Amino acid sequence: MGHLIFDPIIAGIICCLAMDIWQRILFLAFNIPPTNWSSAGRWFVMFLRNQIVFNKNLDNENPVKYELAIGWAFHYCVAIGYGFAYYFLMVDFNILSTSILSGLTFGIISVSIPWFFYLPVTGKGFMGNKTPNPTLTKLLSTSSHVVVGIFLAIGFSLLGY
Fold first, then answer.
1. For residues 154 and 103, is the Cβ–Cβ distance under 8 A?
2. Number of domains making up the chain
3. How far, in Å, are 36, 67, 68, 124, 128 from residue 64 at the CA level?
């Protein structure tokens, strides 16, 4: 039972750390700023307070106390959720493995969450089409989620799967 609880959490943290490092590398190499998790924190708090999922004007809302810390925590909780999804698809359904190809596949599929949920509910449009540079937004979210998927596979591999 310990594997069911702790292994997806550990793999989720590993993949999230890898994504954060990936975004720092992109910043150092190409001056592409990493994700600002304060908007995720603001969205999450406002969702809990007001039960409003879609907030087209999130960037224009007043900041929420501790939104950056809440955003970081939310970011890691989502990654842990991906860890559980990967675990169940690997262990219970035998769809995924710890191969890089499985991780790549999961990562490419997982980018649907920011494209079709997170970006739209924060007013940035489907696939980030309302951002200043939609093509860059698509590339960054895709590359970040490919890193997530690959490092979920690596994380579970390191855990002995």
1. yes
2. 1
3. 14, 5, 9, 19, 23
d(CA 79, CA 17): 9
Quick check: 1 pLDDT over 70?
Answer: no
Give the closest residue to 152 by CA, choosing from 93, 101, 94, 92. 101
97-127 pLDDT, tens per residue?
A: 999 999 999 999 999 999 999 999 999 999 9
Q: Which residues contact 67 (CB under 8 A, 6 or more apart)?
A: 38, 39, 41, 42, 45
Place of tokens 């489907």: 126
Q: Where are the alpha helices (DSSP H) in the chain?
A: 2-30, 38-50, 67-87, 100-110, 112-113, 119-121, 134-158
Length of the chain equals 161
Full domain range(s) for residue 23: 2-158
pTM: 0.94
Tell me which residue has tokens 């937004």: 137
Q: Residue 159 is encoded by which pair of tokens?
A: 């855990």
Are 26 and 146 a contacting pair, CB within 8 Å?
no
